Amino acid sequence: MGQEREVEVEGYFQQDSAMIGERVAYILKARYGEGHNIVFPDSTFDFSPFVLLEKKTFMSSTTEGITLDSAIYYVSNFSLEPISFFSIPVFEVFKYDSLIHQPLEASLALKLIIDTIPDELSFRDNNVYQPIDTEFNFPLLIGLLLSLIFIGIGISFFFGKSIRRRWEIWMEKRKYRLFALRWKKAEEEFAAKPDMDHADELLGLWKTYMEHLKDKPFREWTTIEISDFLENKEIIKDFREIEMIIYAGKSGKNIPKACQNLWNICSDTYQQKITATDDRK
To answer: What is the CATH number of domain 2-110?
Structure first.
């Protein structure tokens, strides 16, 4: 208790009142004798209801064994209370503990800048009724709608086929990019782990995309039927390289080449469809 009495803390504002948000200086001083380790709060301290703007510290001064520490805290008040009370403590730090020294609360009155309201209100003498047209302009609305309809019909008549072709080509390119990404991923997974599941996924992806390009039931056809339709006998070898894993559990010798051949067929078929769509009248 003796050490606690030896620490004197004082805190006060430099002004009595302030407007909302105004920068105000709060002075904090601590006087103490030898053997005290005094710490002032920093920016991590909770200054509510005030907001800390800046802290300015000063060098300690010691006279006849009494040390004076001081700091200025510049704060702003955003409270609508007529009077706000504020107090910042200082901390005395020991080896395993600390002690709080709290100064008396300082008050700050809220300054409101409002013109004095007169007892009687004076109004400008202008009470002439001004008529306002409240009718909706339906003829204008109908004219705008008809104009939009005729413009739409004209665009569809002159540019409808071209716009439709461009849309179909854009959609086809988008599907091709998506297929390319999925094919690359499936091929990499199949190369890393050539088992029945990855082989089936790769062939299923190829048949699904070719079914979209040719509008034929590739997923229902046998390898021979696909070969006959495409007029490509070499595709039988490519399918068998991959199907050996599915039906025989054996890995083919030319799987990378087979995958590349299947990819080339999809790519060539896609290019043919894009060209046919672009040339269509």
So the answer is: 2.60.40.10
Q: Which residues pair with 61 in a beta bridge?
A: 68
- CB crowding 102-112: b at 16 or more within 10 Å, else e: ebeebebebee
Q: Which two tokens stand for residue 226?
A: 């696909």
pLDDT given for residue 155 in this prediction: 74
Q: Of 102, 72, 86, nearest to 18 (Cα)?
A: 86
- Residues of the chain below pLDDT 70: 1-5, 114-127, 133, 157-160, 248, 251-252, 277-281
Alpha carbons 11 and 7: distance in angstroms, whole number: 13
pLDDT confidence of residue 4? 44
pLDDT digits (tens, 9 = 90+) for 1-15: 444 448 999 999 999
- What is the SS3 assignment for 87? coil
Helix 196-214 to helix 138-192 angle, to the nearest 10 degrees? 140
Domains of the chain, residue spans: 2-110, 163-279
Cα dihedral 12/16/20/21 (nearest 10): -40
Separation of alpha carbons 11 and 93, rounded Å: 20
pLDDT of residue 275: 84
Strand-pairing partners, residue 13, are 26
Q: Which of 135, 262, 133, 123 is nearest to 190 (CA)?
A: 262
Return the residue matching tokens 């056809």.
Answer: 221
pLDDT tens digits along 115-159: 566 666 666 666 677 777 677 778 888 888 998 888 878 777 666
Helices then strands, counting H and E runs in the chain, come out as 6, 11
Tokens of 272: 């043919």
CA distance 53 to 70: 17
